Amino acid sequence: MAPGVVLVSSDLFFITKVKEASASLNRPFAVVRSEAALEAQLNAPAAAGLLCIDLERCPLPVEALSPRVAALSSAWRVVSFFSHVHEDTAEKAQQHGLGEVLPRSRFVRVLPELLATL
Predict the structure, then answer these.
(1) What's the pLDDT tens digit per position in 65-101?
(2) Distance, CA of 47 to CA of 118 (rounded, Å)
(3) Residue 8 bridge partners (DSSP)
(4) Would you list the domain boundaries of the chain?
């Protein structure tokens, strides 16, 4: 099974954007909006891929994500993204170890590259 993409977000625009990008490269895609759904995706058999965290529209608190990200195997790449006007959000994500932290506009630009390197 190909590595998948898991998006933690409640933003329909970004859900659609990441879903379409994933489909274009035949990558499995899932959106999670709860801790139980996140656990199920990250612990699925042969789980590996890209975990994207929308820091602006994340339905889970950063504090709840931190231990889950820390426990991930090296088969997962974690990228969090934020609105460039909320620098404090980026700092909080970095303090909690939520992977690469990118401004939303940069995340959109590099998404195809992120997916291609899975």
Answers:
(1) 999 999 888 889 999 999 988 888 999 999 999 999 9
(2) 12
(3) 32, 53
(4) 4-116
* Residues 60, 63, 67, 69, CA torsion sign: positive
Interatomic CA distance for residues 118 and 90, integer angstroms = 24
Q: Give the C-alpha separation, 102 to 93, whole Å.
A: 10
Task: Compute the distance between CA of residue 116 and CA of residue 110 in angstroms, rounded to an integer.
Answer: 10
Residue matched to tokens 């291609």:
116
DSSP string, 69-98: HHT--TTEEEEEEE-TT-HHHHHHHHHTT-
pTM attached to this predicted model? 0.92
Query: For 34-70, what is each residue's pLDDT tens digit?
Result: 989 998 888 877 678 999 999 999 999 888 899 999 9
According to the CATH classification, is domain 4-116 in 3.40.50.2300?
yes
Question: Strand locations in the chain, DSSP E?
Answer: 4-8, 29-32, 49-54, 76-82, 100-103
